[in-house]
Amino acid sequence: MSDDAFAAATAAIIQAGRRMDRFGWVPATAGNISVRLPDGFVAITRSGGHKGFLDAAGVIRVDLDGRPLRAGDRPSAETGLHCGIYRRFPDAGAVLHGHSVPVTHLSRTGGDRILLEGYELLKAFPGLPTHAGAIALPVVDNDQDIPRLQAVVERRWDALAEVPPGYLIRGHGVYVWGADMPAALMRLEALEFMLACELEKRRAA
Ligand SMILES: CSCCC(=O)C(=O)COP(=O)(O)O
Ligand SMILES: [Zn+2]
């Protein structure tokens, strides 16, 4: 168990929370953030704190089944969704979850996927070297039962030939992941930008 790795992950999580807060993506106590540790554990935000005002005490360790390393620690209520990503995608090193206005609004008004096409920022996603590509983000219904929600997400992944590194939960928020925190943040920022454009497009229509 490396304390250095946990300290570095904690610093990255604190910084990511501040950045997400600056954009208004983690209102109230919304959102959660995690990093996979080299020993296989996951550093993740505690439940219920404001993610823009995190300190080191706001980050704890869980195993890949979401069980806290230290008895009594209460990890994010959505820890099961983070762990589901880490279990499924060995390359995922950091996971971000936010509740922005575009994500919340578009996920409520759309169907079971949101298609993004023609955006230069699509290049931030794997396998899309030019703006000419497209990405179809799965949208799943919200559910307070996290294991049941994770099972729905997994069935959606199973049905896709290629799984994009993000999905939306209707009326709730977005999950995005990357190889490390900078990659996950870059994808989240690109995604939020494109979804904000989609919202503008609908307003103008
Ligand atoms: C007030 S937001 C409701 C819970 C939620 O959706 C969320 O993202 C934050 O939950 P956590 O347990 O990670 O603080
Ligand atoms: Zn949430």
Automatic annotation (TrEMBL):
**Details of cofactor binding:** Binds 1 zinc ion per subunit.
Q: Which InterPro entries match?
A: Aldolase_class_II_sugar_metab (IPR050197), Aldolase_II/adducin_N (IPR001303), Aldolase_II/adducin_N_sf (IPR036409), MethylthioRu-1-P_deHdtase_MtnB (IPR017714)
Q: In its keyword annotation, does this UniProt entry include Amino-acid biosynthesis?
A: yes
Q: Which UniProt keywords apply?
A: Amino-acid biosynthesis, Lyase, Metal-binding, Methionine biosynthesis, Zinc
**Residue ranges annotated for the Class II aldolase/adducin N-terminal domain, each copy included:** 11-199
Gene3D superfamilies cross-referenced by the UniProt entry? Class II aldolase/adducin N-terminal domain
Indicate yes or no for the key word Zinc: yes
Q: What pathway does the UniProt record associate with this protein?
A: Amino-acid biosynthesis; L-methionine biosynthesis via salvage pathway; L-methionine from S-methyl-5-thio-alpha-D-ribose 1-phosphate: step 2/6
Cofactor(s) recorded for this entry are: Zn(2+)
Spell out the NCBIfam families in the cross-references.
Answer: PRK09220.1, salvage_mtnB
Q: What does this protein do?
A: Catalyzes the dehydration of methylthioribulose-1-phosphate (MTRu-1-P) into 2,3-diketo-5-methylthiopentyl-1-phosphate (DK-MTP-1-P).
Name under which the protein is recorded? Methylthioribulose-1-phosphate dehydratase
